[in-house]
Amino acid sequence: MSWIGGLFGGAGNAQADASAERMAAWEAALQSHGLPPFVEERLGAAAAGKTPWLSTMTPAELAMVRRHGIRPIAMVTGTCWYHYGYSWTRGHSEGWGAALSRVSAEAVAAGANAVDVTLRTIPLRTESSMDFTVVGTAVKIDGLPPSANPVIATVPALEFVRLLCAGIVPTGIAIGADYEFFTPYRNVTGGGLFAAWNNQPLTELSQFWEGVRRNALRELQRDAQRQGNGVLAHSHFGQLLKIERDKQPPQFLGRHIVVGTVIHTRRSATNARIDVKTVVDMRGDVSPLVSARPHGHNAFPSNEQDGPL
Where do the DSSP E strands lie in 18-128? Predict the structure, then answer.
């Protein structure tokens, strides 16, 4: 019995020690804004073609990018569970920023030129914190040396290639967020903000909510200006929360965040002629031309989003 216990106990201790060493290496790498040696070794082997590549692309996307001289190298990720404390706005911007910087570091280690990424979160309610995860495929473009700052885009590989063909170059990610508190100055006729019997606009609340959205979009524009002249705002999320207060009028919390891919459009492509072709759909079931896509790029709950811009 002691022999069996010693055998399995020793193996368990070895695994625990190896796990602790791995966590310590990750902690040291994150503190120095780098990657642990075993991750750099894995991505270096992928860049050299010594290991099979992994990709988040569909078969159609893979066929398209290969025809345009784009080769997948490896799947890369960046994850950050971030506590946003006093500022929901700053916390969301900084959380996504940390995750994006980590996926960029993995792309650099893989010798990539670009990464098409998806923003993901874990549906777990944790006080004043949130998971920020970025997952994508690092790719190499034929004829280009490895990039010190690979392009990170939220557009899928298929759309990435189509943009390049149209003279539109994805250049990075932009983030805009804002949150504000609001206390109505007056009650609506009928004893309260929502107690009126007649239909009427809530002007103060509408102006407040519009201001929150505009501030988030203004910050998105400022973040995009350093990288290009346009932005495809894919992830678009807003909430308006009513806060009840004891013996006081209710207060409202509005918060909004927009994340998207920054693009740079060349002047020659701005006025380019677009050929329109007639398509006859012979399908007997619901046409894919009119049906909504089953999924998108939104990292936030679909039942709380405001929809695409």
Answer: 70-83, 114-120
Is the per-residue pLDDT at 189 higher than 60?
no
pLDDT tens digit string along 110-145? 999 999 888 887 766 666 778 888 899 999 999 889
What distance, in Å, lies between the first and last C-alpha atoms of the chain? Answer: 67
Name the pTM for this structure.
0.72
Question: Rounded to whole angstroms, how far apart are CA atoms 246 and 266?
Answer: 57
Burial of 126: CB neighbours in 10 Å, binned 0-12, 13-18, 19+:
exposed
d(CA 53, CA 67): 18
What SS3 class is residue 243? Answer: strand
- 21-29+36-165 to CATH, choices 3.30.110.70, 3.40.50.170, 3.40.50.1860, 3.30.1490.10: 3.30.110.70
